[in-house]
């Protein structure tokens, strides 16, 4: 009996142990302009520059991912993706070493079709101020449980970041170490454990209900070329009779992440987002809205507003983050009124949001 008990205990420990995968293992698919194994500060590691290391057979949904990391102070974005379907679709977490100590020192966002949507996913639950160590090893541990995750840095006992909501569907996928920049990042002692037996320290607060006047559903067109809009201020001159539409529901923040619908491609970087506003009487109201990267707003048969929130377009630290920062005043007619917003994207997040306010 004692032997059986001991054997059971050993099997239990083995079942809960981390699965170490050295970078010399053929399980890794490694590529990059400089992707070599070397000894750095007494650790055998992967030096990764402008590349990735993919563990395609991880089959990871819930569990724990751990590794050591060494970075420099330069501007780059080393990190990892998990639950990845391919190189363009997964849950993304990375560091911004050059922003150490700032609110955007680290970043989580869901990636769709390869568009890194940090402009739509920022603030609490997506990033947090934290000092990032330089030129030495520090530990990274990621705990993933269903729709939430915690990130621990440098063996700290409290999470450096609580990801309150993972936005992609819960599904198994690959784990990828990523550093798509021409500055070296080093990874060592990688291990993971795929298990549902994960306990998070953090407790999510209930999401505040959106105001009733925030739009939660849009009609979205198929993508087209932004050049169609250039120099055309009258709505009838756009020749858009052949557009096809689908209904798109926003997330709990009122954000419509248009990147879920299609990739951003040359000649197909713009969609129309259409609202139908019903009014019981003729009245003027304020329409507040946010967009990324550019907007052309049409109402009453003509172009009423255009604007740009492109990354770095306003000053050297402007991230192009989206919020209800812009507004127009609309003379609503009795009955149904249509507002059309053409939303064009370069990179960093393709999105729109809006709410209607009384004056």
Written overview of the protein:
36% of the residues are buried. This protein is 4% helix and 46% strand. The chain is mainly beta and 359 residues long. The protein has one helix and 22 strands. Strands 1, 2, 3, 4, 5, 6, 7, 8, 9, 10, 11 and 12 form a twelve-stranded antiparallel sheet that branches. A six-stranded antiparallel sheet has the order 14-13-16-21-18-19, with no helix packed on it. It folds into two domains: 15-194, Exo-inulinase, domain 1 (Jelly Rolls, Sandwich); 217-357, Sandwich (Jelly Rolls). The longest helix is centred in the first third of the chain and has 15 residues, at 2-16. It is elongated. A hairpin with a 2-residue loop joins strand 2 (28-40) and strand 3 (43-60). The chain has one helix spanning 2-16, and strands at 19-20, 28-40, 43-60, 63-70, 79-86, 89-95, 106-111, 138-145, 148-153, 161-163, 173-179, 185-194, 217-221, 245-249, 256-257, 270-279, 283-292, 294-299, 302-308, 326-332, 335-344, 351-357.
Task: Give the key terms.
about 350 residues; mainly beta; Jelly Rolls; 2 domains; 12-stranded antiparallel beta sheet; 6-stranded antiparallel beta sheet; 1 helix; disordered N terminus
């Amino acid at each position: 009996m004692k032997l059986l008990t001991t054997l059971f205990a050993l099997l239990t420990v083995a079942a809960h142990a981390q699965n170490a995968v050295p970078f010399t293992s053929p399980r890794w698919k490694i590529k990059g302009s400089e992707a070599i194994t070397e000894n750095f500060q007494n650790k055998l590691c992967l030096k990764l520059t402008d590349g990735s290391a993919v563990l395609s057979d991880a089959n990871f949904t819930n569990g724990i991912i751990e590794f050591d990391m060494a970075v420099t102070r330069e501007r780059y974005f080393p990190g990892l993706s998990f639950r990845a379907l391919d190189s363009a679709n997964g849950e993304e977490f990375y560091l911004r070493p050059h922003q150490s100590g700032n609110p955007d020192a680290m970043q989580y966002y869901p990636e769709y079709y390869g568009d890194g949507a940090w402009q739509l996913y920022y603030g609490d639950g997506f990033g947090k101020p934290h000092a990032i160590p330089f030129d030495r090893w520090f530990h990274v541990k990621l705990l993933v449980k269903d729709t939430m995750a915690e990130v621990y840095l440098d063996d700290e006992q409290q999470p450096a970041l609580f990801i309150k909501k993972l936005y992609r569907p819960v599904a198994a996928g690959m784990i990828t170490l990523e550093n798509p920049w021409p500055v070296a990042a080093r990874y060592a002692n990688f291990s993971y454990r795929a298990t549902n037996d994960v306990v998070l320290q953090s407790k999510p607060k209930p999401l505040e209900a959106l105001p009733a006047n925030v739009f939660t559903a849009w009609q979205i067109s198929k993508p087209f070329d932004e050049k169609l809009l250039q120099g055309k201020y009258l709505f009838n001159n756009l020749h858009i009779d052949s557009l096809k539409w689908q209904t798109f529901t926003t997330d709990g923040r009122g954000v419509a992440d248009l990147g879920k619908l299609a990739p951003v491609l040359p000649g197909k970087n713009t969609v129309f987002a259409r609202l139908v506003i019903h009014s019981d009487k003729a009245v003027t109201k304020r329409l507040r809205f946010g967009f990324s990267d550019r907007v052309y707003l049409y109402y009453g048969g003509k172009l009423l507003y255009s604007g740009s929130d492109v990354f770095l377009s306003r000053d050297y630290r402007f991230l192009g983050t989206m919020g209800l920062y812009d507004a127009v005043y609309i003379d609503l007619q009795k009955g149904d009124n249509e507002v059309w917003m053409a939303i064009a994207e370069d990179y960093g997040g393709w999105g729109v949001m809006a709410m209607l306010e009384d004056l």
